[in-house]
Design brief:
The complex is a heterodimer of chains A (about 170) and B (about 220). By secondary structure, chain A is mainly alpha-helical. Chain A has 9 helices and no strands. Chain A is globular. Among the domains of chain B are: about 90-165; about 165-219, no CATH class. Chain B contains 11 helices and no strands. The termini of chain B are far apart. The chains are: A mainly alpha (about 170), B mainly alpha (about 220). At the A-B interface, helix 1, helix 2, helix 4, helix 6 and helix 7 of A face helix 1, helix 2, helix 3, helix 5 and helix 7 of B.
Chain lengths: ~170, ~220
């Protein structure tokens, strides 16, 4: 494995679970999450290959860079989905057919309710809750990813948590 | 539920993780065959652990088995990832057209299998066509536009309805260009009537029909 492969391999190993989870909570489908997650890493790998120096200097936080790609892909996915919902298709089954998340992972009733309630929040609220409470990112890191000020991020976080409490 | 309980439950959601075999497979595919080869030679050099060899074989087998997977099949995401990587070096136009063409083939195969749920195949077709049409709209290349329109016609001929707002814009643009071009030509009486009919259809926003009329006129 050459140096470039080795570096990216480490980035992949370190971030695959976080990026997958971030997407999964937003699209609520294992298959779509896998699809968008692989696309995220393919795009990052292309950027990494294109200009490794730039990647290291400018994108000094690969995790933030990956989240930004994933976030844009999820937005594009919902734009396409909204258009698709304007017509009815016979026998369309898009939800996962396998065992449910509760069966695969030991999560309780409350946790599953929270997961489903998150789907009703706007995209910014979902993102900030996943990043801060599930992934443990600091408000400063989140502010950088969202391109917002620290203060505004804190306010959004507080509002997002209140909105989620109202839903569950 | 108190705020503390809510936060505790949120933290527990970190248990959700991707399938291990999928994560390993995707990494191998993205980083390319070099890693497989180097992993393999490392294994040979260091008296292999059985688990590593099994994993390597498993990934290869998974790739091969996924070749014929159709949308909705368990192995289809693996096939999609392989395709994306295979086409990642191509320019966007080639990439999007190739994917739309493959989804069309999948759609045909799914239709042939009576017991097959058509939903995932239609959904995949819709997404790939939407992407291909967007790229065709940006492009001025006739060949790209023509191929997208050909795929659209094939989908219609299968009796499948997909939502694609961009295709209407593509037809509209092409008809507008063609009408302006044809207006400069000297036409027979019959061709003039067809052009007038095409303009009428265009005004009624029936762009695909207007496009067909233009094709007929030009043939």
């Amino acid at each position: 494995m050459n140096n470039l492969h080795e570096k990216f391999s480490k980035i992949y190993d370190k971030n695959i679970n976080n990026i997958y989870r971030f997407i999964y909570f937003k699209v609520n489908s294992e298959q779509i999450a896998e699809d968008l997650c692989s696309e995220t890493f393919i795009r990052a790998w292309k950027a990494f290959n294109r200009d490794n120096n730039h990647f290291e200097q400018e994108i000094n936080n690969p995790r933030a860079f990956l989240y930004q790609i994933a976030r844009n892909l999820v937005i594009d996915y919902y734009k396409q989905k909204d258009r698709a919902q304007t017509i009815s298709l016979d026998n369309v089954v898009l939800a996962d057919q396998g065992p449910s998340l509760e069966e695969k992972v030991n999560i309780n009733f409350d946790m599953n309710n929270i997961r489903l309630a998150m789907q009703d929040l706007n995209q910014d609220y979902q993102d900030i809750i996943i990043w801060h409470y599930i992934e443990g990112l600091s408000c400063r890191e989140i502010a950088r990813i969202m391109n917002k000020s620290y203060g505004s991020t804190r306010v959004t976080l507080s509002r997002a948590l209140n909105a989620l409490r109202e839903k569950v | 539920m108190t705020e503390k309980d809510l936060i505790n439950n949120l933290k527990q959601l970190k248990k959700v993780q991707p399938r291990k075999e999928w994560a390993v497979f995707t990494k191998q595919e993205i980083l390319g065959i070099q890693e497989n080869i180097s992993v393999f030679s490392f294994i040979l050099r260091h008296k292999p652990a059985f688990a590593s060899v099994s994993l390597f074989c498993f990934i290869i087998a998974l790739t091969v088995l996924s070749y014929n997977a159709l949308p909705g099949d368990v192995l289809f995401p693996i096939r999609k990832t392989t395709e994306k990587i295979e086409l990642s070096t191509k320019i966007d136009q080639v990439q999007s057209l190739a994917i739309a063409q493959r989804r069309l083939e999948d759609l045909k195969k799914a239709q042939e299998k009576a017991e097959k749920n058509m939903g995932p195949a239609i959904s995949e077709m819709q997404n790939s066509m939407s992407q291909a049409t967007k790229i065709a709209l940006k492009s001025q290349e006739k060949l790209v536009v023509q191929q997208v329109i050909d795929i659209d016609n094939e989908i219609k001929s299968l009796g499948v309805l997909i939502e694609n707002q961009e295709i209407e814009q593509l037809y509209k643009r092409e008809v507008e260009l063609e009408i302006e071009r044809i207006k400069q030509l000297s036409l027979t009486l019959e061709q003039t009537e067809m052009l007038e009919k095409a303009i009428e259809l265009f005004d009624q926003e029936q762009y695909a029909e207007a496009y067909l009329m233009i094709l007929e006129l030009s043939s």
